[in-house]
Amino acid sequence: MIRALIILLNSFVAIAATEKEEWIPLFDGKSTKGWEPRAQVESFKAVEGELHLVSKVNVWVVSDLQMGDFVAELEVKIPQENAGFNSGLGFRLVGEKGKPKGYQCEIDRSKPGGVYGIGMGGWLYPKGKEQTDTYNKNTKGLFKPKEWNHFKVEAKGPHIRTWLNGKLIAELDSKQSLKGRFGIQHHGKGGTVKFRKLRVRELK
Questions:
Q1: All structural domains of the chain with their residue ranges
Q2: Which of 34, 40, 67, 197 has the fewest C-beta atoms lying within 10 Å of its C-beta?
Q3: Rounded Cα–Cα distance for residues 114 and 92 (Å)
Q4: What separation, in Å, do the N-terminal and C-terminal C-alpha atoms of the chain show?
Q5: Is 145:80 a contact under the CB 8 Å cutoff?
């Protein structure tokens, strides 16, 4: 009995270690290595384990890393002085210069966790009155404008899901882009948006 318990415990430890090893940091905590702004920014730097981005124009900062099927996580804190501030986590982004094309998990006060198709027709979720009503009900009071908010995105084949602060928000199918880079956005008009704990795990 004891031997069986030991074997079972060792199996759990091995699985946990494997899962830990599979996570890839998108940010090393001390530099902007692996990220490239696609427009002129006021400032883009690492500050005490956080990525700080300041811009007066709409800009995407895009990762070197490309991936197809994955789970990605990050925490974001938006600027307080810019009431209409808009940001996002881009994924499966394509295009080598300028504004990329792909998907965006919305990060703002109005539709956090929603999915927008950049160069792919606009809003993918919520779309239409029924989805919008459900979205508004599920997200009421969930996003904390003055605090760090946790976002999670899962993409597997055409199936895409997003979470905000641990709650499932969006679920949809789209196959317009199945592989590409990650990105973080500043929609302009100033203010510092802060990102931390950015990591990704490939789904096989």
A1: 25-202
A2: 40
A3: 16
A4: 35
A5: yes
- Per CATH, the number for 25-202 is 2.60.120.560
Burial class (CB in 10 A: 0-12, 13-18, 19+), 132: middle
Q: Where are the alpha helices (DSSP H) in the chain?
A: 2-22, 129-139
Q: Residue 16 pLDDT > 50, yes or no?
A: no
Whole-number pLDDT of residue 53: 97
- C-alpha 153/C-alpha 131 separation (Å) is 19
Q: How many of the other CB atoms lie within 10 Å of CB of 156?
A: 12
Select the more confidently predicted residue: 83 or 151: 151
Residues contacting residue 98 through CB under 8 Å, at least 6 positions apart: 38, 39
Bridging pattern class, strands 149-156 and 35-37: unpaired
Whether 114 contacts 170, CB under 8 Å: yes
**pLDDT band at residue 191 under the 50/70/90 scheme:** very high
- Asked if 60 contacts 91 with a C-beta cutoff of 8 angstroms, the reply is no
